[in-house]
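quick one: adenosine-5'-triphosphate bound model?
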Amino acid sequence: MASLLWGGDAGAAESERLNGHVTATEPGRASGWELEQHSLREMCWGGEGGAPVAFGVGCQFSNLIHSQKNLLGIKSATIPNVDGSVNRIEDDDEDDVVDLAANSLLNKLIRQSLVESSHRVEVLQKDPSSPLYSVKTFEELRLKEELLKGIYAMGFNRPSKIQEMALPMMLAHPPQNLIAQSQSGTGKTAAFVLAMLSRVNALKLFPQCLCLAPTYELALQTGRVVERMGKFCVDVQVMYAIRGNQIPRGTDVTKQIVIGTPGTVLDWCFKRKLIDLTKIRVFVLDEADVMIDTQGFADQSIRIQRALPSECQMLLFSATFEDSVWQFAERIIPDPNVIKLRKEELTLNNIRQYYVLCGNRKDKYQALCNIYGGITIGQAIIFCQTRRNAKWLTVEMMQDGHQVSLLSGELTVDQRASIIQRFRDGKEKVLITTNVCARGIDVKQVTIVVNFDLPVNQAEEPDYETYLHRIGRTGRFGKKGLAFNMIEVDKLPLLMKIQDHFNSSIKQLDPEDMDEIEKIEY
Ligand SMILES: Nc1ncnc2c1ncn2[C@@H]1O[C@H](COP(=O)(O)OP(=O)(O)OP(=O)(O)O)[C@@H](O)[C@H]1O
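yep, here:
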């Protein structure tokens, strides 16, 4: 099988479906321009030999292949656009031509799923009840030219509902404060990143935007979005205020956007005096629900906020909004505009949820293996409630020859970052984790989430928010996803409570019935 390079959002979905025979450019990167050359090489030669071939959708992808074809060794590529037209790239040497259009597998994919999957987001963006719905285009949101370029380079076509609603408020003059909630994977990060990039003054060499994130990983992830979206904003730079980033006291921090975790930011502001909070113009508090669940973070965030100037714009984002989050939000954001979804809008309609009844841990594992063997999995995240269970499961799966990695809280931040990066790059297909990774991490190729243990709180009641955050790791931005819950019989009432809480259906699955499992579709 030749190795294939597949581009764009739709390409990512197909990469999953072809189970490793196709490597996608990073999803969302319709253009692929940002890909580093070595990663292009790796992707193209990563298959089992044979000529590298390129396949993607859209003219930007075509441009990429055109410009890189010598490097990639590509002789020919036929690149259909979603509108049905075709871009064709050929080498002079006819003998070496690899023509993908002739490949029936790929033709089938274009018809069946590629176009379908990119259209799906468009359809959702026209459905007023969808969180991806928008009436406006990005141009109508009056974003700066260089930001529009950044957005389109990331493969975004239209704003999502939260982006469409929040951006005009965030960009208004005088600046308005905002508390906003929208479900997982609907574009909140992109929304506030656009707000920060719109307000920053590249000529002023000191921190002007400050974003607090609850974990090291999320801070890095958000920073990457700033870097990608802001790549045409010349001279705008990001700095990470996270543990391990040792900046000596007295250093002149010249970067305009600082993203960090509350403890380190506090240290940088008050002890090391690296950031002058009185100069901050935009303050963002992301994943507020996670912040308040983490000891000390709420107080630290409030201390930081209290030192900001009154004219600083304050923005708070959260995927869920229990009363406690709301109270915190109102404490920290003065005079806010509010965008809040009704509870029944919170369920993730694009994610099909199942449960399997099991006797014990071994049964759960067996059921997991049956599911794993029965359906095509892109990448999967498996959540366990304890580190012990996570370790046990990792060992079992490895002994059975699966390529898995384990992410748990006892690892150093560097180790965690490297595991997430490997997973993001598709080097491991399964990530086993505890709650560390439940929130915010955005890996679009994740098609399956497994709750090996149901999330419960200390009172042994269902932890609804964590459930939502966990399954929200799949089904990003309208993509389809599957969630499987492995349930011991005595935990069934908890699952039923979750079902009622979100008013969504969680179907029972017989783990022995391979026919049924194989019929499961995204
Ligand atoms: N307008 C858009 N068009 C296409 N893709 C988008 C758009 N906005 C965001 N995305 C993509 O959708 C995915 C989810 O977006 P994002 O991470 O901003 O969601 P979120 O609401 O912050 O999620 P979470 O609550 O889980 O943190 C990302 O991969 C992002 O690149």
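Residues 1-75, 79-84, 91-121 have pLDDT under 50 and may be disordered.
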